[in-house]
Design a protein that fits this description.
Length: 186
Amino acid sequence: MTKTKTYAALLRGINVSGHRKVPMAELRSLLEGLGHTGVRTYLQSGNAVFTTASGAGEDELRAALEDAIEERFGFRVDCLVRDGEYLDAVAAACPFPAAELRGKELHAVYCSGPVVPERFAAIDREAFLPEEFALGDRVLYLYVPDGLGTSKLAPAVSRPSVVKGLVTTARNWNTVVKLIEMTHEE
């Protein structure tokens, strides 16, 4: 018997300013149609948690979800799928004092591949203080005390020349914590 595992799906760039609309009820239905159970969504910005016994890995689950979204809505959406254990590890490895910060001050930028230091070597960290970033394995931690909307560092770390070949999607720390909680719910 295949053991069930819980995952979070992170959709990139949907429901922004009325563009690329993916209603959460339809996303839940789509995930259920892919054979997943316990499907729940959080906010309107493309966060879903589901359980599967398929035995498929993150990349297979991602590809199936991207294909299903394109078939259903007529446009392709980049997605990342991460299991609950990975989300736990991201929170545990956070180098910033998450418990002392407001959710808008700290973000996890999830990446489709390794976040190697060479990609970010040309960024003059001193020039962006007090904003800071730290690298994880497939995540970049971004501390922006005035929020992401006014950040000067966020565009620098997400320039196409820096993240070339990676799919990235950011979540504020409140969302990071909520998705972890949701992956632990039965």
